[in-house]
Amino acid sequence: MTSTPLLERLRALHWRLTPQRRVIAEVMDGEHVHLSAEEVLERARERLPEVSLATVYNTLNELVSMGEVQQVDAAAGPTRYDPNTGDGHHHLVCLKCGDLRDVHPQGLDVLELPRSERFGYRIVNREVLFQGYCSDCGGP
Amino acid sequence: MTSTPLLERLRALHWRLTPQRRVIAEVMDGEHVHLSAEEVLERARERLPEVSLATVYNTLNELVSMGEVQQVDAAAGPTRYDPNTGDGHHHLVCLKCGDLRDVHPQGLDVLELPRSERFGYRIVNREVLFQGYCSDCGGP
DNA sequence: CTCCATGCAAAAGGTTTGCACTCCC
DNA sequence: GGGAGTGCAAACCTTTTGCATGGAG
Questions:
Q1: Residue A82 to residues A28, A43, A68, A118, B77, Cα–Cα distance (Å)
Q2: pTM score > 0.85 for this model?
């Protein structure tokens, strides 16, 4: 789907590119797991030690706003960030421990709101969220 | 849809019924807007002043776990709680200000995960979440 | 009578903010 | 050179927790 590297797309958007931002974008482009801001910081610092948590938050929020990154709020634990792959993958979260998994429910190609239900929003993400309790936290 | 009053269903589940819990359940049963824990506390105290925030959180978490209440994490602002109406209503949230609206996308009757993708979870809520920015926070 | 729920306040995160400094464009 | 981005640490909010007390079943 999304074959163009993230950095190219960002350059095309005339996004101010600093070393910190570049490294953070690279982390998000490479990892297809759900990283917390803290984990993004960790991996970014492996490449560039002088990165701060505040910048990670700033940058992730911008990437989300640009629709390049998806944010998933698990209600337990910190917000997680996921590169927006464009495939129809969705999420299953544990409300107690925050465990997060990808799922691929079928027949949801048409995840779009009619204009009459958009309320003037600029929508950057559509997703199906299943909430429950994992087997460790209170399974069936 | 859900015609049985919440309290009756709770009694049927042999749920320990204290004055505080009853009042909180009544608030949730009556209100079809998305209330934060703080707002639930406010309304519960109108009926019973000696209710604490901790109890509101405890009780709401239990109701969520029982599948009787839905929790929506907007990423901005506090978690919101919604009575589980059973109709196919979903949510549109503003990532910046936390504004939350009901939407009714079509053709999503089959919001269920195949067992192979449930990972042993006990699922209590399925919903479609549209994230974006409202017209005040950065519309189109 | 026995647990379990409650209240209070403190603790525990996670995320944002203010300000001085840096450096990308 | 100017304005946007950054780092640091403190502030902010929301939610959970510990412990003594009280009340539902």
A1: 7, 14, 9, 24, 21
A2: yes
